[in-house]
Amino acid sequence: MGDSVQRCRWVPPDDALYCAYHDTEWGFPVAEDTRLFEKLCLEGFQAGLSWRTVLGKREAFRERFAGFAIDAVATLGPDDVAAMLADSRIIRHRGKITAAISNAGIAAALREEFGSLGAYVWGFAPDPPARADPHRVSSPEATALSNDLRRRGWRFLGPTSSYAFMQSVGLVNDHEPACFVHAQVAAARAGFQVPA
Fold first, then answer.
1. Which residues 6+ apart lie within 8 Å of 36 measured at CB?
2. Using omega within 30 degrees of 0 as the cis cutoff, is the peptide bond preceding 134 cis?
3. Residue 21 appears among annotated catalytic residues
4. 188-193: long-range contacts (C-beta < 8 A, 24 or more apart)?
5. What is 16-190's CATH topology?
6. Residue from 18, 26, 38, 43 carrying the catalytic annotation
7. pLDDT value at 2 more than 60
8. What proportions of the chain, in percent to the nearest 5, are helix, strand and coil?
9. Is residue 51 annotated as a catalytic residue, yes or no?
10. Contacts for 95 with CB less than 8 Å, ≥ 6 apart
11. What is the pLDDT of residue 94?
12. In the annotation, is 163 catalytic?
């Protein structure tokens, strides 16, 4: 990247895509249902792989999964699955693909029950907010979110993936305190309106 800013240590400084994701997206609070659903799906695709792999394929995932619009994903059928399995631009794992489609139906039901997917997800935010810990891989709240989603039939989201999701969409701020983004995320969280 050639810049001199201090980022979290997990960010490769010479990876422009990763730096942009870290600097402008990771940890900033998200309320919008489509973005939350996308992140939940992509965390499922990441299981067993690196986030960098998923990040590099995100645009192709968005194309194949109708921009992660919940209702559109829920209507995808066998022909769509077959096309995805033939598309090397995404992670071609039948179980993860079919899980994302069935999970869309669950997301739609959560939206109906809670008013929005955001209202449901943000109900699991720690209170008071947890102190930043870049080495944490789960939390009681992440385990509760994972368990509740699994009880509802959600697939491919264990406690570790659930915590990674919470980090990425701002339910916790795990930017290292010395990272230049930490204060930006803290300010965004302070002004954030939790979805009702």
1. 30, 117, 118, 121, 169
2. no
3. yes
4. 188/28, 188/29, 189/29, 189/129, 192/29, 192/31, 193/31
5. Endonuclease III; domain 1 (1.10.340)
6. 43
7. no
8. 55, 0, 45
9. yes
10. 155, 156
11. 98
12. no
